[in-house]
Amino acid sequence: MSEAVQLYWGTKEIWSMDHILPVFLVVLVRAQVPSLGSEIRFMNDFIAMEEVCGESRVLLTTLQASYCQLQWEVSAPTNDI
């Protein structure tokens, strides 16, 4: 992901989680993956964690966190006054 950002913007900026998490949330909402929870569970069940390390592991964890955040926002009660 960092390489893609560097290619797109032409800079060598390293993104922090403060930048990455909102991008993940926007991408997930726009992608409208119908069974995202199942897809994430599939990845966790069938990808050997020894093979997922470094940036890939961080991105997989960020995907899970983004999904949990979206689930929480959908189920959270609204306080319309």
Structural description of this entry:
The protein has 81 residues and is mostly helical. The chain has 4 helices and no strands. It has helices at residues 2-9, 17-31, 36-46, 55-75.
Secondary structure elements and their pairing?
Elements: H1 2-9, H2 17-31, H3 36-46, H4 55-75
State Rg.
15 Å
Number of helices: 4
Gross morphology is globular
Mean pLDDT over the residues: 81
Distance linking N and C termini: 41 Å
The helix fraction, in percent, is 55-70%
Structural class given helices, strands, pairing?
Answer: mainly alpha
Percent range for β-strand residues = under 5%
Main sheet summary: none
For the secondary structure, the number of strands is: 0
Unreliable segments of 5+ consecutive residues = none
Give, in order, the helices and strands. Answer: HHHH
Using brief descriptors, characterize the structure shown.
4 helices; globular; 81 residues; mainly alpha
